[in-house]
Amino acid sequence: MPYLSETITAEGWGLSDMSQISDPAGAGRWLQDPVHRAGLLENAHRQLRFFDRTLRDDGGFDVMNHDGTPLPRAGQELHYTTRMVHAYVLGRAIGHPGADRMIDAGMAFLWTRHRDAEHGGYLWSVDETGVHDGLKLAYGHAFVLLAASSAKLAGHPEADRLMADVAEVLDRHYWDEAAGLHREEFARDWQPVSTYRGMNANMHSAEAMLAAFEATGEAHWLERAGRVLEVFTDRMPRANGWRVPEHYTEDWQVDPDYAGDPMFRPAGTTPGHSLELARLLLQHWDLSGRPVGDVPDRARRLVETALTDAWRVDGGLAYTLKPGGEVDIGDRYWWPVTEGIGALASLLKLEDRDRDETWYRRLWRFADARLIDRERGGWYPELDDDGAPEGRQFRGKPDIYHALQAELYPLAPGLSRQVEGLGAL
Predict the structure, then answer these.
(1) What is the C-alpha to C-alpha distance for residues 388 and 83, in angstroms, rounded to an integer?
(2) Which position among 36, 96, 273, 284 bears the catalytic label?
(3) Which H or E run includes 104?
(4) What is the pLDDT along the chain (425 residues), one digit of tens a residue?
(5) How far apart are CA 170 and CA 283, in angstroms?
(6) φ and ψ at 260, to 5 degrees?
(7) Could you tell me which of 141, 153, 292, 403 has the fewest CB atoms within 10 Å of its CB?
(8) Annotated catalytic, 284?
(9) Angle, helices 199-216/219-230, rounded to nearest 10 degrees
(10) 17 Cβ partners below 8 Å, 6+ apart?
(11) Is 402 designated active site?
(12) C-alpha angle 184-189-191 in degrees, rounded to nearest 5
């Protein structure tokens, strides 16, 4: 498949003045605008070229500084390895050169380095000496399932082995059948380390189970994803002003006073997760045959509440909110913007509404002006109060996963089977 990047130059895309990604020439909707679509594809290739350099001789992946040089190693985390596999399956779908090499490396690293041959399951972080952090998180295991499912869609020969292994671990240690949700965390030898329960790990488990259903057709993945999504896109938001509490006690009661790791478990609610949940809810509904019900309305309530609460007057989305919707942490990260783009693209594919189009354009304009590194590739993950790249919370450019999905999912023909659909671009 010929790359659009071969025929569309940076000047032709308008990278220097944002004119193409944020203001396509046509007067129609951006999802159908050929210049906007070509710009998204070109930026996806630019990102992939940047992250190509992360692969090390030992098969691991470095985290890259803003300028594309490797940062000092501090242990390779499970979610980084797995997301690289998923991202390069998307890259493979658009014909990115060398994608198979990256997928192969990530799959091998998961099986030989992250997989705990002694106790089972997957280690959170590994380094040259072996185990860097032996914690076993539902969050990380969800991404192992996502990587295996994506690799299976790409026809990788080791995907079935990885999927069977992580599915057994999830079922044995994490799945709480009575609650219809996943438990959170264990020590390396599977001793409980806390009674904490979290929304974030369950949201990503739903994402992974939807991918597993798409890869295998096995209905139990769809059923379990639906149970998780019912809690966090219906029961909890209805009781909390269409915001989604992040933190819970062992018996799944909201824990409003909890505050943990500022990156993964900040206090309050996280509007970016509401946007992500809305997209996953629509994906599940689509894979379920679009049954009659209120799913599109619920997705819209989640999206509109999050955007209204979190949009800052100087652009970008605040990271966290207090329970009533007041901004708590106003820091601006890249990933809530990417999830807003994905959610709005899904809504626009269902129904042509001016308000959704306005928000879709607003988020892309902000991303193009402040987050996308048009010279070197990748997105800056964090901004200071003046809108310049910052590094308080994130080292370098730690992630391709969120931004690549924002660039490619709007191009997919529907709400689901995105990896397969991208092959028609």
Answers:
(1) 26
(2) 273
(3) helix 99-109
(4) 222 222 222 222 222 333 445 555 445 899 999 999 999 999 999 999 999 999 999 999 999 999 999 999 889 999 999 999 999 999 999 999 999 999 999 999 999 999 999 999 999 999 999 999 999 999 999 999 999 999 999 999 999 999 999 999 999 999 999 999 999 999 999 999 999 999 999 999 999 999 999 999 999 999 999 999 999 999 999 999 999 999 999 999 999 999 888 888 999 999 999 999 999 999 999 999 999 999 999 999 999 999 999 999 999 999 999 989 999 999 999 999 999 999 999 999 999 999 999 999 999 999 999 999 999 999 999 999 899 999 888 999 999 999 999 999 999 999 875 555 565 44
(5) 22
(6) -120, -140
(7) 292
(8) no
(9) 150
(10) none
(11) yes
(12) 50
pTM score, two decimals? Answer: 0.93
Catalytic annotation, pick one of 114, 247, 284, 402:
402
Q: For the chain, what are the domain ranges?
A: 4-422
Region of 173 please: left (phi>0), alpha (psi -120 to 50) or beta.
alpha
**Other C-beta atoms within 10 Å of 60: how many?**
21
Q: Which two tokens stand for residue 161?
A: 């082995």
